[in-house]
Amino acid sequence: MIRAQNIFIVGPMGAGKSTVGRQLAEALSYTFKDSDQEIQRRTGVDIPTIFEFEGEAGFRARERQVIIDLIAGERMVLATGGGVIIDPENRQDLAARGVVIYLHCSAEQQHARTARDRNRPLLDTEEPLQRLRELMEEREPLYRQVADMVVTTEKRGTGSVVKEIVRRLEEGATGVL
Ligand SMILES: Nc1ncnc2c1ncn2[C@@H]1O[C@H](COP(=O)(O)OP(=O)(O)OP(=O)(O)O)[C@@H](O)[C@H]1O
Ligand SMILES: O=C(O)C1=C[C@@H](O)[C@@H](O)[C@H](O)C1
Ligand SMILES: [Mg+2]
Fold this sequence. Notes:
- By secondary structure, this protein is α/β, with parallel strands linked by helices.
- It has helices spanning 17-28, 35-43, 47-70, 88-97, 107-114, 128-146, 158-170, and strands at residues 6-10, 31-34, 76-79, 98-104, 149-152.
- It has a five-stranded parallel β-sheet, sandwiched between helices.
- Helix 1 (17-28) packs across helix 7, helix 2 crosses helix 3 and helix 5 packs across helix 6.
- The radius of gyration is 15 Å and the shape is globular.
């Protein structure tokens, strides 16, 4: 059983990348990393503060650097931020350095899971559901472009999502397990 590769989790806000990623890493005995967490660790401030002082462009530059640094690892599950796939170099690097899993769910489900949390500056608007729909329309083709595996998290628990991912990795479709 070869377990050298990385697993990169992409998908929209509230799809469950951080939650599923942590549990998947545990199930595989891989290291867990989260690019949003890493950006906050490096700067010592939260994501809304980075957006406030440096704008989205400043955040994207920090995110790009974190991806460059983290993809050098091995046997790692990396939960990415929802917009990581906007940058073509990120897409290229993720596709080249590991198996990319796209966690998918509806904008309504994303909204239900993110409504109480104020840590997502792109949703700090009057109409967060509408914003989530627009972001999905722009980004869905990019998530699919990089994905080796697409898994839905719609109306199901994280345990079931993790089980499905492990089973599909073991089936060998991606060559990681
Ligand atoms: N399958 C699920 N069922 C129910 N709740 C879930 C599920 N997955 C995640 N959640 C909950 O939804 C919220 C958002 O999940 P999470 O932070 O993992 O999303 P994310 O994809 O990492 O989002 P972001 O891109 O903003 O980092 C959390 O409160 C989490 O506990
Ligand atoms: O979808 C996005 O662009 C974002 C998602 C979050 O994970 C964070 O990376 C940040 O709030 C931006
Ligand atoms: Mg996350």
